[in-house]
Amino acid sequence: MPVDSILPLLAVAIPAIAIPLILALGRRPNVREGVTLTAAFATFATVASMVPDVLDGAVYETDLGTFLSTGLGDPIGFTLQADRLGVLFALLASFLWIATSFYSIGYMRGLDEHDQTRFFAAFAASIASAMGVAFGANLVTLFVFYEVLSIATYPLVAHDESEEAIWAGRKYLLYTLGGGVAVLAGTVMVYAMTGTTTFQAGGIAALTEDPMMARAAFALLVGGFGVKAALMPFHSWLPDAMVAPTPVSALLHAVAVVKSGVFGIARVVLEVYGPGAVQDLGVGIALATVAAITLVTASIIALKQDNLKRRLAYSTVSQLSYIVLGLGLASPAALVGALLHIPAHAFMKITLFFCAGAIHVETHTDDISDMAGIGKRMPLTMSAFAVAAAGMAGMPLLAGFVSKWYLLVGAVELDLAIFAVVLLVSGVLNVAYYWPIVYQAFFEDEHHPDPKPLLEFPPGGLASSDTGVEANSPRTNGGRHLATTAEPTGAAVDADADGPDSVRSDGDGDHEESVTDTDVTDDHVSSHGGGHTADSGWERRSWRTESTWFMLGPIVLAAVGAVVLGLVPGHVVFLELIEHIVDVATEVTH
Predict the structure, then answer these.
(1) pLDDT > 70: what percent of the chain?
(2) 68 forms bridges with which residues in the sheet?
(3) N or C: which end of the chain has fewer CB within 10 A?
(4) What angle, 0 to 180 degrees and rounded to 10, lies between the N-to-C axes of helices 308-329 and 283-302?
């Protein structure tokens, strides 16, 4: 039931209007951040206001006129459309933008990061693009915002302006813009075959008239969107992009950017081809096979990563493939599991990235091998990490269990036991690369940590002293000999800070006072941070003083979201939206 409304346009316009305001307020950081938070709340409120009617079948549309008219088919309108699938993605991204905005204030000021104004402006541009991706009414409109999202996020990936960050940013653009070219080619093929690119419930019927062309277009579309979804072999940009500030990794690389890729694949499967055509053409099993290979391989690679953010990145590569696997299977239960894993993964993974960022800000610790006993210093952060990690592994009563249950049921329904086995094996691998982090944090002593790597040296981790390898020799994936852990890594941030105002910064990296490595002697700084030597170990902190609540608040919120999605998924709007989406999509078969 189409309803003419300005609301879809407003959801895109609010963060877009915030961009020039943020740039203009660069010298007034408190007001600048106020604009960011106001825009985040207003965007979420706009999207949330559409939910009741959308659940009842309404489709909000904003027609901005004809975009292309070729005479070969229907005119292509530049139209925004808030249907159930679009609202699912937009509601998730806009809600988590609120949490990430608060977190970003604590993180960016806690590290006294440079160019904070550019950072917040680029963040707003990225959210505006993500809203456009969610509400694009056809493949062309979706493609436009999909490409803008790639460009808008480049300054965030390359924010550090180091050689590594610039290289990662260029690689990110090369991959994602290349994927955009494939999407455009697939879109042209769809238009040539059917005369339309408009999304239709159950798919565009005329696509099945030429099976070979339809399969080729499907490969281009899914391959193009699969770049941002980090399907192998197009995944390597994602771990490299972890050089970006943690708030970028948290929202854009756990929600907006990577989820725009799986969202695009969902549009193709559900509303361009339709589940029936996907199964009839045989392309679904091929897609599920690629996803299965990706999720197992990425999990194995994650075992080798000592850097926490890189391990989380490879976990993301694996977890995104759960979604793609379900879309490829295209049975009702598998589709529910795939779409439910979008918000489930978002809440769990954003919690994990928030925790990694808080650890970095407070202790300057980035490697898992240096985190033995860190639960003493950051009890709330590591408890939230443990909850989210358990959810990622599919433990009951957490979000990951519910979505993976549906995926298992979907695989069994189709008599495809191999995919059920893959899902179970991946769950075991999730436990294998998350449990050591939790175990080290709470059950190991920093004075006598276990140096044994997850995979035997040299593939990754630390080498024990009796391996016969020289102590100071380089270690794969950032692993170091334990003898190096007493070396200073830099000054720690004041962990008793109540908020951003306690940090000596004007909010844009220009400050009158600064703390540098040369200001603090080795007697006061260790790799554990907090102003203590390695000999004294981690300082014990309570959950109220381990970090600023600008970071702790979002961590708790995201972790609670992961629990709620696992305990009462039927009472959360996401599952209700998803069930309606799948019911409508599977009503039409070809």
Answers:
(1) 84
(2) 76
(3) N
(4) 160
Mean pLDDT computed over 101-127? 88
Two tokens, residue 528: 């554990």
Query: In terms of C-beta density within 10 A (0-12 exposed, 13-18 middle, 19 or more buried), how is residue 43 classed?
Result: buried
Euclidean distance between CA atoms 316 and 339, whole angstroms? 16
- Residue 76's contacts (CB-CB under 8 Å, 6 or more residues apart) are 66, 67, 68, 69, 70, 138, 140, 191, 197
Instruction: Tell me the pLDDT tens digit for each residue of 362-378.
Output: 888 888 888 888 888 88
Query: Exposed, middle or buried: residue 501 (CB in 10 Å: 0-12, 13-18, 19+)?
Result: exposed
Nearest Cα residue to 284 out of 330, 225, 228: 330
Rounded to an integer, what distance in angstroms lies between the CA atom of residue 269 and that of residue 283?
Answer: 10
**φ, ψ of residue 199 in degrees (nearest 5):** -70, 135
For residue 99, give every residue at least 6 positions away whose Cβ sits within 8 Å of its Cβ, in sequence order, or none: 350, 554, 557, 558
Distance CA 22, CA 437 (A): 38
Q: Kindly tell me if the per-residue pLDDT of 579 is higher than 80.
A: yes
Which residues have CB under 8 Å from 112's CB, separation 6+? 503, 504, 505, 509, 511, 514
CA pair distance 52, 74, nearest whole angstrom: 31
pLDDT over 80 (residue 430): yes
What tokens were used for 183? 């999407």
Query: What's the N-to-C CA distance of the chain in angstroms?
Result: 23
Q: Where are the domains of the chain?
A: 2-440+549-589
Please give the model's pTM, rounded to 2 decimal places.
0.84
Residue count (the chain): 590
Instruction: Give pLDDT, residue 246.
Output: 85
- Tokens representing 360 are 């970095």
Q: What pLDDT band is residue 58 in, cutting at 50, 70 and 90?
A: very high
